[in-house]
Structure formats: C-alpha cells, structure tokens
Amino acid sequence: MKALAEFIETRHGEPVVKNQREFINNLDDIVFGAVMEPDKEKKTALLTAIKEIAKREGIIPSSIHDFYVRMGKDYPGFTVPAMNIRGLTYDVAKTIFRKAQAMDVGAMIFEIARSEIGYTGQRPLEYSAVVMAAALKTGYKGPVFIQGDHFQLTLKGYKKDAAGEVNYIKGLIKEAVEAEFYNIDIDASTLVDLDQPTVKEQQRPNFSRTAELCDYIRQIQPGEVAVSVGGEIGEIGGKNSTPDELRAFLDGFNEMNRGKGEGLSKLSVQTGTSHGGVVLPDGTLAKVKIDFDTLKVLSDIARKEYGLSGCVQHGASTLPESAFDMFPTTGTSEVHLATGFQNIIYDSRHLPESFRQQVYDFIKKEYAGEKKETETEEQFIYKTRKKGFGPLKEKWWGLDAGVREKIMQELEDKFGLLFEKLKVVGSRNLVEKSVKPVLVKKEVKL
Question: Which of 140-149, 200-209, 273-282 has the lowest mean pLDDT?
C-alpha cells in the first residue's frame, strides 16, 4: 500500500502532486492510509493535504446559503437531499458523486450529526476530507456542501451544566468550520419548555440559544463565507410543529439576531417521523404517516413571511418510496436521510453473513447495557447496529472490493431513485449560478 508522501511534495505549506495520474490511481490506498493513521498529528496532516489537493482541482467546500436565499424568493420545485454517511464513507461518497454526475445533480448535501461523529468515529476533518477525496476520485468538480447535522444541545447535559453544554457545541462548531463544514444545523429544540404559559416563552430557550450559536458562527466563519445556518422548532419524534411555534421561534430569533449579520436559511420541523423509524418486535419497520399538510403550511409561512428557503424534514430515509414525491410538492427545502442507507448496507445479500454476525456479536457484547427489558433482540440490534461502524471501521473498509462494489450498486439505485423523486436531476447549473465558492487555503504540515 502506497502512502501520500510518495506522490506529493510540500512548497510553502501547499501540497503539490508530482504525478497526477499516479496519484489518482493510488488515491483509494492513500485515503485508507490517512483514515487509519493512528497518530493524531500525522492523521490531521494527511487529511488536510488530501483536502487541499482536492481544492486545487476545483472541488470547493461551500455554503448553500446563497442558493437558499434564492429558494426563499423563488422555490425551484425540488427538495435538496442531505445525506448522512455512517459507514464505508469513501465508497458511499464515490457512489453518490458518480450518480450525481450521471444525473447532473448539484443540489445535494453531505452531512454528519453530533451523535454520529462519536459512534461512527468520524471527526469533521476526516469526514470532509474523505468526501472531497471521493469527488476527486470520480472527477466531480464545483461546490461541495458539507453539513453539521443536529449540532444538538442535549437536555440532560444542559440541565446539569448549561454553560458547559453550550460551550461544547461551540467547540464542535469551531472544529467543524475549521474542517470546512460551511453548513451548520443548530438544534436547541430539546430546550423547549412546554410548561410555560405562552408559545413564545416555550420557545424562548430554543431561539435564544440558537441566536447565540448563530452569532458565534458568524464570528468564526472565514471572511467571505456566509455559513448556512438552520434552526429547529420541534424535536424529532415529538408532537407535530405548529404555525404558532414557527412564528414564535423566528420572531424571537430575529429580534435577538438583528444587526448581527445573516440569519437562518431554513427551519427543521416535526411532522410525524422519528429518526431511524419505529422498529417492531420482529425487526421490521412500522409504517409512518407523515403530515404533509403541516409540512406545506409551515414551509409556505417560512418562505413567504420570513424569506427562508422553507422547512426541513428529518427522519425520512425509512419512509416508503411513494412518500418522496410529496416533498417537492409541499415546498420542502431539504430532507435528511441516514438510516435507510445504513439498512441497505447491513441488509444487503452481498454482505457476508459471517461478517454481519461478527458485527452483531460485537454489538451484543459491547452495548448489552443499552438493551431494554421490553425489547426483542431484533429490536435491539436494529436500534444499535449503527454503532458497529466506528469501532470496526478498518474491518468494514477492508471488506473484499467485490463485496463493496455490489453493495454500492444497491446504494446507487437508491440514490438515483431519491434524486428523481426529489426532482434534483438537472439542478447543477442552477446551484452553480447562485453559489460562488470561496477558496480558503489551509497550511499543510507533513
């Protein structure tokens, strides 16, 4: 396996590729070596170098903010897919870029949530570098949207130490922005206090902390970059959001953000879904009925009264395929997709049964304490198997290339279907007209 140092030299803190063809031919091994590098400083240097090389080839981490401003004025008739990649990230990202090029898709987001960063073992720099390497390998050029999903203030942590919890999220935001995540979704909906007498007072902890964190983002973002910032009014899995809650949150946020720069570009709401879906005792998923009427009403208000791109739907990847046609119809600006991709990987007939059982045995041993008495083993495995990606990352990435290729074909079919139903086919030109990528150079220290 060849290492990055064989293909580049550093000049004035910038990596220069000696032989582009040889570098691209060996990129899979180079990325594997960087991701699996045990030394933290070396890993940081390797990942930064990969990212800088990709940027020199016209692959630029970007904010979708300006496009969403345009969407707020004139909805283009499509919903942007935001895709969380938990495992086999390099292979999955290559699959997405290949399908996007074949279908002329530019409106798409790669994202990872606060919780996923932990259990998948993917810090922001690793995630962004791997995504950009995938673009480089497949020949994709232009703006790439990388997003911090659900940068969430946990209620438990907040009650114990409010300042500490807020500072943790600020630290995560700083790490993400440094890694060129120029799209950040703040989730303080966990702090909504329904015991308060008015809707505005119920939403006050949410909009005040969201405004504080948005202001922090504006302070640390690179000079010419306007990070796309999203808020959230209803915790996913809870009761459906209402127009009164949306207006109370946005009015409160705008009051606090006045004079402090750009505000929010989108707003996440709850319309009946839950993250990962609801799993039945036999391990299958319960059918979920999403409230598309509510989603349309809220998106219309967000766009027409507040100039936002619209509303965001979370927890959608496990919905039936027939549901995805409805998102553009209801004016939804963005939809978040995660567990459905994970399910395709785990449930693929091409994944060796012996390997699947190896992962499940690991989960049953390491996370036994998380199993509830009321859960069947099938429910426990379904709920917990997302945690099999991080600790076993090297084993996943080391699966036979033929096996991974067949699994990727299944995923490619899924991405193609989603791109069609969300109507982002042919969106690349429209996005590139609105988004002017800003090149932010990072020093490489190999």
Answer: 273-282
Q: What is the pLDDT of residue 275?
A: 43
Question: In this model, does residue 272 exceed pLDDT 90?
Answer: no
Domain with 52 in it: 4-56
Kind and range of the H or E element at 164?
helix 162-178
Tell me which of 56, 74, 93 is where a domain ends: 56
Q: Are 147 and 110 in contact (CB under 8 A)?
A: yes
The overall pTM is greater than 0.70: yes
CA distance 126 to 61: 14
Chain mean position to CA 46? 23
The answer as to whether 33 is a domain residue is yes
Phi and psi based region of residue 48 (left: phi greater than 0; alpha: psi -120 to 50; beta: remaining): alpha
Residue 54 near residue 444, CB atoms below 8 Å: no
Helix ranges, 348-397 (H): 353-366, 377-384, 393-397
The pLDDT-based confidence of 10 (bands split at 50, 70, 90) is confident
Q: CB within 8 A of 26, min separation 6: which ones? A: 2, 6, 7
